């Protein structure tokens, strides 16, 4: 488990994180959402033990992470900007990481190079950003970490590789029950991958919830009637985002679907359609209620 408690981090007079807290449980994929410059990278580097804190604490399995070599041998951080040894190829980097990470797996490394179809003898400096991203992911997964921190890890990947990375992460979490944190400025990147979402804004985590709780009981309802319907006809139950368009009413409602269906049937609609909300739709509804404007990160 990773526990971040009331941390503050500044660079000179610029405060980047202030009184920020969150918890990541074993066997989970935590999605960290925020616009560019919101402090996502600073938070990840703080959790990785790269940055020291002005105040507060970060504990991994009950141990402080900063200057803790034993914890860092179980953790891998993929930054947005990659660093590889000069003139190195994948085999060079594999030998380098094998000397530091006790969980390194040659079998995993060989399998992943074959899956991603990358030549491990090719120099890394000549690769595109997308290819370097794939190399970083291969090396990270080959260390078999207990904690994996990913900063904008889908940038530069084509749709096929994005799907592959999603599947590999899901399998690794299911197999080893590791903790994964993925930062992104776009919530669509994390749809159907994360089981927990945290929103960073104004130097703090301003929203923190499991995806199950976000989705729980919330559906989109579309009702069609023989004639136009008045807005007050739907006052009998709680709904959100009501849109009336002539004979059609669309809204979002939380609660027991059967009960809501029964209530709508009293209005004598000719058609009732029910569909689950996407993570993005749930997110926007939650943020609208809290009066946050996050249109630039969805």
UniProtKB/TrEMBL annotation:
Keywords: ATP-binding, Nucleotide-binding. InterPro entries: AAA+_ATPase, ABC_transporter-like_ATP-bd, P-loop_NTPase. Transmembrane segments: none annotated. CDD domains: ABC_DR_subfamily_A. GO terms for molecular function: ATP binding; ATP hydrolysis activity. SMART domains: AAA. Pfam families: ABC_tran. It comes from the Bacteria. PROSITE patterns: ABC_TRANSPORTER_2. The keyword Cytoplasm does not apply. This is ABC transporter related protein. It comes from Dethiobacter alkaliphilus AHT 1. The lineage of its organism: Bacteria, Bacillati, Bacillota, Dethiobacteria, Dethiobacterales.
